[in-house]
């Protein structure tokens, strides 16, 4: 792909050392990714998730903000695709509020030789703004974060306030069979057994909210296909999970732009 340096290329320049392998094994990881020839044992398979985002092949000359970056895979990917500036931000996973930490991000960034290319800042999504960051960004990534937020509408407004061109939103979606914009609420730990998950929205609600915060051109670039939802429901059923909510649960990726861009057909996507 144009402008993309592969993980293998980056890793090849920095051979795995026993020291790196040991350091990786001492940490708890969220992202599975290759750093300097070592694969981190995370829970999120980035090889599978990355193509679903349909990031521009080249981010040459662009500035990119990664909100909720955790171990930083997508920030590093933005740098690989040529972004001139990348800022990775997080709060919950980096500030000691959860089992996560910033250590994986710092180790991976060093192993990949991206210390000057990717800056990090601990900041809550609700505190984002041109006034707090002192800048705005061409591209903003909000991946796997929205359902964690108690105030998702304000969060979208804050993210929009620092986005000049494109917001890539990846999130959980539910109630897709309802044409009316709707939100599902998770008062306890109904979504993935995680009591820090609060809301998911159906596609109509997400499109409407993105337009509401200032993106007139919204397109869906990925939705979990029916075949995958069926396979996942079967697998969760074997483990005794409630089948109906497992089947209705799906992921969605939207591109929200300040101006129109060519449509992508979600049916043709992996
Ligand atoms: C499911 S992980 C997703 C990580 C990464 N973006 C990805 O897609 O692989 C959710 C991330 O959102 C972050 N997060 C949760 N609440 C946040 C908040 N209020 N402000 C900033 N980040 C937050 C968490 O710390 C965590 O890193």
Radius of gyration: 18 Å
Order of helices and strands: HHEEEEHEHEHEHEHEEEHEHHE
Q: Tell me the number of structural domains.
A: 1
Mean pLDDT: 89
Bound molecules: S-adenosylmethionine
**Estimated structural class:** alpha/beta
Q: What is the strand content?
A: 15-25%
Task: Please summarize the sheet with the most strands.
Answer: 7 strands, mixed
Secondary-structure topology with pairs:
Blueprint: H1 7-13, H2 18-26, E1 31-32, E2 34-35, E3 38-39, E4 44-45, H3 46-53, E5 63-67, H4 73-80, E6 85-90, H5 103-111, E7 118-122, H6 130-133, E8 137-143, H7 152-161, E9 163-173, E10 183-185, E11 199-201, H8 203-212, E12 217-223, H9 226-238, H10 243-248, E13 250-257
Parallel strand pairs: 1-4, 5-6, 5-8, 6-7, 8-9
Antiparallel strand pairs: 2-3, 9-13, 10-11, 12-13
Bound molecules: S-adenosylmethionine.
3D structure, described in words:
There is one protein chain. This protein is an alpha/beta fold. The chain has a single domain, classed as Rossmann fold, CATH 3.40.50.150. Helices cover 31% and strands 23% of the residues. The chain is built from ten helices and 13 strands. The chain has helices at residues 7-13, 18-26, 46-53, 73-80, 103-111, 130-133, 152-161, 203-212, 226-238, 243-248; strands spanning 31-32, 34-35, 38-39, 44-45, 63-67, 85-90, 118-122, 137-143, 163-173, 183-185, 199-201, 217-223, 250-257. Strands 7-6-5-8-9-13-12 form a seven-stranded mixed β-sheet, with helices on both faces. The protein is globular. Bound molecules: S-adenosylmethionine (SAM). S-adenosylmethionine binds next to loops.
